[in-house]
Structure formats: structure tokens, C-alpha cells
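haha ok so turns out i had the wrong file open the whole time. this is the CORRECT one, sorry everyone. sequence first:
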Amino acid sequence: MGCDLTRNLDISALRSFVAVAELGGMTRAADKLNLTQSAVSMQVKRLETVFESPLLKRVGRGVILTSEGQQLLSYSRQLLRLNDETWQRMTHQAYEGQVVFGVPEDLVIPIVPPIMREFAAAFPRASIRLRSSQTLKLKEELAAGSVDVILTTEPYDIGTGECLHRAPVRWFMAKGSTVYERRPLPIAYERKCIFMPLVVRALDDAGIPWEMPYIADDWRDMTTFVSAGLAIQANMAHIQKSDWEVVPADNGMPILPDFGVFLYVRDNAPELALQLAGFVRDEYELMAPPSLKNKPA
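then structure:
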């Protein structure tokens, strides 16, 4: 069995070393850090002892870095940045409190869990209130100031927020279903769903008679009608459920315009909300194909 050689670095010593390297001398570094020159010198000596390598060379009244010192400087800057960021996030008032996050119901499961997990790990003193609703309602609540950050699903050419993801709209049905052959064509939607007017207009323009015998008050209930093979629905391609499939392309269903997932942050939002928006961007950056990530200006 090998020995455990894990060692802990002294952040204070690294901070002194970086100050000496950047300012070119012990005296200036001591003034910046509000330490005595001897204290700074001792900390640098301690690092040289730990690494068994000289880190600085005296040149006149100043110092320059050795090759080992150059290598340590790069790592030290990264460690100090992470240390200071961690300290700020764990203690600063701006990272306490609650942020209200509004998300369309059909995006909650595929998108929200990793965002919540990463945000909670970064800001353990903060809390998120999740508001799951429809795009139109979320935009009303954002305007009223009752939510801080929202995601929306809107036509790609109409949304005015920051577009994080673009996706085609597909006609979905239950696997193995032939409900798409029925006329009038049964469709299922939530009340005030942003997709519904677009779908109805497209069906009318294509001359396809339709009916809406199944209207739901939330996303879960609506998907039940589709999964049961009682109706079809058009929605963004990436929300397809495991028991759904796309209506055959040769069925004559109208082609629908692309939709986008848009990010909005309310005016004068707190710092915590701005940080959450950053985590949302990061998640979409990971999941979206490069060609669909951002809406061009």
C-alpha cells in the first residue's frame, strides 16, 4: 500500500508569494498585505522549504522568479481566485436570501434539476423558489416583479429575451398510435398554451379539420392524453417523452416554425438572481448543439 502524500498549501503564504512576484519586492508586497517585511520573507521561505526549490532570485533591490517560481505563480493565482470566490459566496450578504425562478412546465424535468443542484452547491446559504407555469403567465409575473428569472418557450423570431436554445417543433403522438389519421384531428393542450394558437392557425391554413376534446390545466395532465393515444400535440423536439414518437412525415401535417428557449431577468434583480441566470446559461451551453446555441444579433 502506498503512502498518503497529500499536503495542504498555506493560502496566506501563497498570497505573499504572488504579491512579491507581481510587485517585484518584499517591501512593496508587505505594504500591500499590511504585513512586516520579515513576515512576508518567512512565508516565502516556508514555501521554498516545502517545495525544496528556490522560488525567487535577488536582482539589485528587487527579485525575479526562478523557473520553479514561474510555475508556482500560475497555480497560486488560480488557488487564490478560487479561495476568494469561495469565501465571498459563503459569507457575502448578496449570496443569501431567496430567488424566484419561473420555468415552463415542459422544461422543468429536462432542465431544472442540474441547475438547482449546481446552484445549491455554490450558494448553500441561498434558496430557490421554483415557479412552474406557462410562458404567458411567467412573462406577466416577471413584469409585475414577482419572479426574478424566467425561462420561456416562444417562436424563435418573436422572443425578445436572450435565446439559449433553438429547436424545431414536431408533431407528437403515443408510440404505435394512429390517432393522427382521425378527422377531425384531436389535439390536446393546456389552457393559454403559447403553442396552441400557432397550431390551430397552421391546421386551418392546411385545411385539416381539428377538435380539442382534451384541455388540461397543467402539463402533466395534458401529456396523459397524448400518451394514451387520444390526441396529438406539437411541441419543441427536445421535450419528447419516452412513450411518444413523431407523427410520420408523409402524413401531410403542416411544418411549424422553430421555437426558442429564452432567458429573462427582471430589472434591478438582486445579485443572487444574476448568478442563477449564469447557471442557466451554463446548462444550456452544455446541452445545446453548437448550431442552435445562440440567436444571432
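The domain at 11-91 is CATH 1.10.10.10 (Arc Repressor Mutant, subunit A).
again sry for the mixup
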